Amino acid sequence: MTRQLSILALVALLACTGCDKVKSLTQRNKAPSTPAPSEAVAAPAEEPSLDEPAAANAVAENETAAKTAVDTKSEVVVLCYHRLEGKAGGINSIEPALFEQQMQEIKDSGIPVISMQDFLAWRRGEKTIPPRAIIITLDDGYVSELEVGVPILKKHGFPATFFVYLDFINKGGKSVTWAQLGELRDQGFDIGSHTVMHADLRRKPAKAPGDYDAWLKDELERSKKTIEERLGISCATIAYPYGNHNPKVQEATRAAGYEAGFTTYGARLGHGTNALTLGRYDVTAKMPGNQSAFTVAISFAGMVAPGADPVMAQDAATSMVTQPMSGEVITDASPTIKANISTMGVLDAGSVVMRVSGFGLVPAKLDAATKTISYTVEKPLRPGTYVVIIGAKSNGRPVEARWSFEYNPAGGTSPADAELPPRAAATPVAAPAKKK
Q: Kindly report the CA angle at 188 between 186 and 189, in degrees rounded to 5?
């Protein structure tokens, strides 16, 4: 009887108060005995958990915002040093006092010096860098780079990257030791590969065992692995010995796991510059007008390196180095050969000429407005490698720049014997010796 009366009372309650109030009463009975907030006080909004779509979208938006904050229009120049011993160090050496002077000039310029890690992170879209920045590198592993260079670098607060080759480490005399490289690492400097034996990677030395492919693989992989194992670091960069490379070397470098490869052909590097052909200014080199490569580099007056996309580079006359690109394999038997000569400096009027191996002097046309010289091949090419030489005079002195490309109707990659890539600036030509 009591149960029936309870049911009747519930029915009466529904009829009198409506479903909403019963629902509220039911929820209140299920909830803990904590008093409900009054209508005058707003309940705090419940935060979504990390696995909910709203949170995921927020994370994605933050990541996108971080990437869009990267200034892809920034430019970087890379300086390349070797020995800091003066004349005693040979042609690739400079006086310690000059190195000190140049570091002070960089400091006075106000242009930031960034680390290799910052440069790589910028190219990956992970962080931004200043509109203009400088990277300092030192090659080979001479002890003078540590004894002379490091104190000066630390004085100015400059990071730097040391490219070392295995056969020169722990050899005594002027060579660096593994212990010293460990000290460099601990001081925050980057260390990259300069291969095993410092040989031209485009061809195997006669004394090296095995075939070319096996030797090239070993030069790239063993140097990287040894540096990583001995120093407990990630070796992400390599400096090609003598700056020499070609498409085959580039592909082997990529396969070995390197993130960036550096030459000695200076250029202003952009966000999209080919990661395996990054130019550096050799500070011992001379530019047109007897300007030092260092001066041209830190003034950001040199050429702009082409992008990773060859088509983009060829369409932009102001940034294009050559067409075809250095080391490129083409399938067109009658290509237009083109070069932007602005990097050769101020040239004497009417002195610019183009020569092509197998053709000799060709009737190239010079566009003074874009400073581009071009020639469309009239006689179809035969399969093989072609060298292009741009000759001119600057203040009466002969200068020239050269590069090579390959014609192969079937396509493919260039052989290991490709010529040098184009230089960032004209190279003075020695005057012929007078006959006695």
A: 105
Q: How many domains does the chain have?
A: 2
| pLDDT digits 0-9 by tens, 108-127 | 999 999 999 999 999 999 99
Contact of 256 with 196, CB cutoff 8 Å: no
Query: Integer distance in angstroms from the first to the last C-alpha of the chain?
Result: 140
Judge whether 63 lies within some domain. no
CATH code for the domain of 373: 2.60.40.1220
Instruction: Say if residue 173's pLDDT is above 80.
Output: yes
For residues 238 and 271, membership in a common domain is answered with: yes
Measured between alpha carbons, how far is 360 from 25 in angstroms, rounded to an integer?
Answer: 100
Strands (E), 90-241: 132-140, 161-164, 190-193, 237-239
Q: What is the rounded CA–CA span in Å between residue 121 and residue 134?
A: 15
Which residue from 85, 191, 182, 91 is spatially nearest to 143, judged by alpha carbons? 85
The 10s digit of each residue's pLDDT in 320-333 is 368 898 778 999 99
Task: Tell me, yes or no, whether 104 and 239 share the same domain.
Answer: yes
Please report which confidence band the pLDDT of residue 398 belongs to, taking 50, 70 and 90 as the band edges. Answer: confident
Q: Does residue 314 form part of some domain?
A: no
Q: Are 275 and 123 in contact (CB under 8 A)?
A: yes
Single pTM value for the model: 0.61
Q: Which of 176, 186, 127 is nearest to 147 (CA)?
A: 176
- Same domain for 111 and 260, yes or no, is yes
Better-predicted residue by pLDDT, 217 or 264: 217
Confidence of residue 97 (pLDDT cuts 50, 70, 90): very high
Q: Is the pLDDT of residue 300 over 70?
A: yes
> Of 302, 326, 293, which is closest to residue 406 (Cα–Cα)?
326
Spatial contact of 165 and 137, defined as CB atoms under 8 Å apart: no
Domain contains 189? yes
d(CA 89, CA 318): 38
Single out the residue of 403, 400, 402 nearest to residue 288, CA to CA.
Answer: 400
What number is the average pLDDT over the span 175-185?
A: 96
